Fold:
Amino acid sequence: LLRVLDLSWVKFEGGKLPCSIGGLIHLRYLSLYRAGVSHLPSTMRNLKLLLCLDLRVDSKQPIHLPNVLKEMIELRYLRLPLDMHHKTKWELGDLVNLEYLFGFSTQHSSVTDLLRMTKLQFLGVSLSERCNFETLSSSLRQLRNLETLNFLFTPQTYMVDHMGEFVLDHFIHLKQLGLAVRMSKIPDQHQFPPHLVHIFLFYCGMEEDPMPILEKLLHLKSVQLTNKAFVGSRMVCSKGGFTQLCALKISEESELEEWIVEEGS
Structure:
């Protein structure tokens, strides 16, 4: 009759989750966050009522999972491991009730799987060589309920400047955007979602000051730049910009020497 099982940080002998997990047929919540597990049993297909599943296991070794996810059709919340080296192919096409998906990789899943997830509100995705920014964003046009979109950092995406592919203006309901992708300069304001409220920029390596663009996004309430999002030395917030801004976080921008905030910004 167990409903909630948190196995975070638990170490399993031989890295194998016991087959008996499949007997917990009423389970709604299962977390394997940082668990020492590399093999998941096929009996997990019995967890038909599972609503929340966290598979961000300890990443020291690849995870092996039989093709059972597609049978968990009640899933609302799914977090996948970010290890880009594992060989697992996640077949997610039947998870039409998903509202939260973190760790989706175009290397290990098909973009067409996302198209059926029309209830998706939160998506954390990492790009691969086979699928660039432009291809992915055009594929996601149908996700009308998407409110949060995070592009996750991977060494592969950091090798490429994604500036030329950036077009997200068709995400009219998107409120929060996280970008951990390399771009030499920030895109034009017209390429951003029109009602964006929060933006988080990490590891972008922008050489040009992003503020002249960001301050024109009329609905922005919070901006975060961290981990070398901006590698220039001078930043200017001009008069009349950022009309709605409530919070600004700047950290680990080691090249920044001068920050000018004009009166009225």
Observations:
- The helical segments are 111-115, 133-139, 155-158, 211-214.
- DSSP finds four helices and 13 strands in the chain.
